[in-house]
Structures are given as structure tokens and as C-alpha cells.
Amino acid sequence: MELDPHAPVAELARQLIDIPSVSGDESAIADAVEAALRTAPHLEVLRDGNAVLARTALDRAHRVILAGHLDTVPIKANVPATMSADGTELIGRGACDMKAGDAVFLSLAVALAEPTYDLTWIFYDLEEVEATRNGLGRIARNHPAWLEGDFAILGEPTSGAIEGGCSGTLRAEVRVAGVAAHSARSWKGVNAIHGVGPLLATLAAYNAETVTVDGLEYREGMNAVGIRGGIAGNVIPDECVVTINYRFAPAWSVAEAQDRLKHVVANAGLSSWDLTFTDLAPGARPGLDDPLAEGFVQAVTAASGMPARAKLGWTDVARFGELGIPAVNFGPGNPELAHADNESCPVSEIDQCRAALAAWLTEED
Amino acid sequence: MELDPHAPVAELARQLIDIPSVSGDESAIADAVEAALRTAPHLEVLRDGNAVLARTALDRAHRVILAGHLDTVPIKANVPATMSADGTELIGRGACDMKAGDAVFLSLAVALAEPTYDLTWIFYDLEEVEATRNGLGRIARNHPAWLEGDFAILGEPTSGAIEGGCSGTLRAEVRVAGVAAHSARSWKGVNAIHGVGPLLATLAAYNAETVTVDGLEYREGMNAVGIRGGIAGNVIPDECVVTINYRFAPAWSVAEAQDRLKHVVANAGLSSWDLTFTDLAPGARPGLDDPLAEGFVQAVTAASGMPARAKLGWTDVARFGELGIPAVNFGPGNPELAHADNESCPVSEIDQCRAALAAWLTEED
After folding, report:
1. C-beta separation of A22 from A127 below 8 A
2. B204 touches chain A (CB under 8 A)
């Protein structure tokens, strides 16, 4: 299947949807993207597995990285793409997450021979699966020089707004201990499920902060997302485990966030407990207070009418955060339709995102 | 394998242990017990599946039922039986639960041709498995006339004391509802796990009653014995289910006990919940205030030095309770060793239980 990077961008998005690329099966789409990029003489192209990278080398003062994943969640009778009856919506697997964003990037990668900044374009694989297989992570290990830059844009769906940075997330298991006993003689035991009551009360009463980072407001949350306890219907349980998810503003490092969670648990009034972190993912600062990003914010705000806002869900922008590169999410499509069977994207948003990005990338420095 | 019902009772217990009889595999032991009972001309014998029943027909004023199960939990390299080095403990699967008790009953069934009361002896199968398969329950359905009587003794291990009646037990699932949301935007949801906090606090503070029934004290208990909640590590849970086990004194019917539990849950301050009963088992009154049982209590107390006490765990005496027959547990062996790999029973308790029971069953009315 061939791609035409010079086609109208919504048509290019349709072509990308029509190449199935469920995670782990991205070779056909990577081949097509690589072929399209290699038609542009101003780009140096690199293939790494089923990721394709391209970059300019114009000795500009700054370099911007633009990245999007090529894989999708499994297809649900929604490939090939279709168009809504009124011609305003592109419908199909990946329309929103995130082949419309890929189309914007691929179209501009080939079109912009003389951008204001040096540009690095990354089309990667394995984003919709476990983090250890993530293509962007693999690139960071195999080709760290290709991830050098001053600002990064991830083309995840944001309805065409800028969603800056992302909150961090961590999970911890709090294990409350008791003493098992036959439930007919319950006073001989210590009920661990009853023992978690004060922790649940503490979490229910927890007043999550809203933290301003680089001008954007990150609303936090600390929640029990899992609980388990009980051995049998006639046994006083000797253990109850609560899984807590803390979504923290990128003002805090992972270590700081761990301390904040530990402080809450330690002050909950539990009698016998321990805490184990099971998942740690840093946030990313948005960097929108950097002069480099100012023009971008202006261009997008003018086009979309939506001010930049904080990204609360965790995305791969955090991988740039770890490298010290401020990063934002920016792409066409309603993120609430990601992974939905009726995934779709307004054609107008695809056009608008391309136009806003083109304007910024070619404005005078 | 043959049994010698005229052997010393601890030797008969050893013989019973040496016939493996894990639940569902009781035909060999039932055959042997049936053969032993049929040697006694004063007994009418009935075989029902792998249960064996025998009874006198002496036109006595009262009839006492004595019942014990023949099956055991799975063997753990503890069959055949062994004797402790000092000769005081019989060791093996079922030594405690409850072939020592079976031996006492089988020995007396054959020996007592002229008891003070008419006697019905029941050796039954499938006690250690789900209640619907229980052999005593099957006999109640197939041969209700064989379960007519004025007082019942179940030979479960009680260290040779009388443990009267039993507490009832019921289980209920309390389901607290919430509203699911992505945990990065937790304020859009309602956390069902946080929502059970007030219920756990109520249960932790619950002041269980001690209720006197027929002169024995039944200490109650109301406990969470299970809890589950959570969909995924990034989702605010929309449901949390707490399983509560209420052990109630036989002063209350099942319906009354249900009402008592519902009252506690309804006053816990939950916001959105429902309650489903998953298990209901009535208690049994001990009937020790009946003149019929007075001599029994005196004989056992004199022999064991232990006063009659309430049975708190649920046992098959409740099946007699349902038939309106007061019932007690009485047998050799420490109940805490039931099902243990090192299950054993003191020889002296086996002898003492037989002697106390023989004394009562032959005393002048």
C-alpha cells in the first residue's frame, strides 16, 4: 500500500487508517511511511524496527521533535476507513488515536524543506501495549542522539488544543495485617478488612491539590483503585490490600510524589501496615513559559480558539520529560473516542492542526 | 477390612482410621460399619448409600439419636494410624474428626442391648464437603422417620466436654455503588472503595452480644470476611463488595438474624448500596434445660471435669435444630486439631467419652 504525502491531509489520514497496524503488526505501515519520507531530499531517514525517524540538518538555533505512534488497538470492523454521510468525519480504527495526527506530521515532514527550527519526526510502534515494549523507549536506548531537542510535540488527540506536559502517576499497595481466626470466634483474631477503614476514610477526605506548573494547572488525585481481602467465608481475614493510584502534578519528582503518598498513609491511623510501590511514572513539564513555545501557543490558540491546558492523563510526553525536554500533546480528534468502536475524527480538526503547526514551523524566528 | 466392635474402644478407633474414607469414597468403611452393626440382634439396621443407621425398638419413653460422620478430609500420609511413643495419643487422619467419636458410638451401639432410652445410631457420609451433598441431610429427605427423637448427640470432637447447640451463621454481600471515571480525572467519578469506609468503621465498632440460650452463653460476631473492588489501576472503581459473616446465637431465627444484620448495614451511613444474602444456616438450641438431658450433663461433667458450654462453630447439630430436636456436640479429640496434618486424639478421652455415655445410657430412668 502506498501513501501520498502530498495528498490533502485528511486523505492521507484515510490512507494511513487503511493500512492495518495493530500493535506488533506495524511493518506494512512503517514500510509505507518510510517510503514516503524517503521521497523528501531534505530529510535524513532512519529505520529502527518498525519505527521510522526523519530529520532536517539546517543548523537552526533550536530543534523541535514531533512524534506519533503508528499502532492501534485491535480493529473492530472499522478498517478500511469510511466518511460520515455529511463528509465531515473520518471514521475508522486509529482515526482519532492517532493516524490523523500521524497524517499531519507526515504531510508536514515532506512539505517543509525550510522550517524555522530543525525538525525531528518520529513515527513509532508499540505504544498501545505494555510500556517495556514501547517503540519510543527503544529509540531512546538505541539512538539517543535522535532524541536531542529543545521542545517536543506528541500528536495524541487533544481536539486540536495544546495539552501541556502530563501528570505523573504512581501506584502503591498498602497491606494491612491482622490475625486470622475462625469467624465463629472472631474475638480471637484481628480483622484486617476492618483495619483498612481509617485508610479509606482518609482517602475519601483527601483534598487533592491543584498545582500550577509553567502556567498550567494540574489537578491531582489520590484514590483507592483496588482492594482485596478475605481467605474464606468463615475466617477472620489476616490481610487486606488497598491499591492506591496517585496522579501528581509535574511539579514533583517521582521521589517527591512517593513521599507525599507515604505521608498520607502514615497519618491515616493504621495499626499494622506496609507499603510497596508497584508502578512509578514521572510527569512532564509543559515548558510553555519558554520563548520557543510562545509562537506555537499563539498559532494554536488562534486556530482552535482553545487556550493551552494541562494534560492530566499520562502519555509518552513523559518520556521527553525524563530527557529534560519540555513537551506537549497536540493533535486532532476527541481523546474520549480513543479505542472506541466508533472512533472518528473531524476533518476540520485535521486541517486546522496542520495549518496551525505549519504556521508556527515557518514563521520568522 | 473387618471391624471388631467388641475391641477396646481406642483399638476400634484405630481400625476405623485404617479404612480410608475421604469424602465421596466411604463405601468400604460403610460396609465394615454395617457388618459390625448387623452382629447385634437388638438393632434394626438400614443402609442408605454410604450411610448406615441402626436403632433399638424397646418402647422406651424417650429416644436419643447419636450421629457421627464417617468421612474425612484428604489423607496427608497419616493413614494407617500410629500411636505416640508414650502410648497416649492415637495419630492419623480422622483420629480427632471424628473416627474416635464414631468408635465410641459403634462400640456402644453393639454393646447396649438394654439402654434406658431407645437409641438411634447414625453413621453418615459426605460431611466434609458442600452442605447439599451431606449424608445426614439426605437421610432427613429419604427416611424422616429415622430422625424422630427427643434429644440428639453429634460425636464431633469437643475434648470430651458437652458443647450445646450451635450458633447460626449467615453471609451477606453488601454492594456499594460508585461512578467509574479515569483516575487522572477522579473528580468525574464516585469512588466505591472509598464509599465502603463507613461500613468498615461500623463493623469495627460493632459490639457483638453474648446471648444466653437454655443456660449456655453464645457469643456472637459480625465481621467482614471478604472485600473486593477495582477494575483497573487507572479507573475509579464503580463497585465495591463487602462480604459479611454474622454468627448469631440460636436465640434468633434466620429471619431475625437477617433483620439484625440489615439494621446494622442500614445504619452505617452508606450512600448507595444493596444487600444480598448468600448463605443462611440456622443455629440449634442446646436443650440442656430439658430433664432428659440432666443426667447426661451430670455424667459428662463428672467424667471430664468440664461444664457444658455453648458451641460457637456451626455443625450438623443445626440439622436437628431444624427438626425441633435439641442437640449437643460431644466427642473425644481437640477440635483445633481437626483437619490438621498432625491430627490426633488422646486415648484417655476416647475411653472417658465411652464411659460417660455408657453410664448415662444405662442409668435408671
Report:
1. no
2. yes
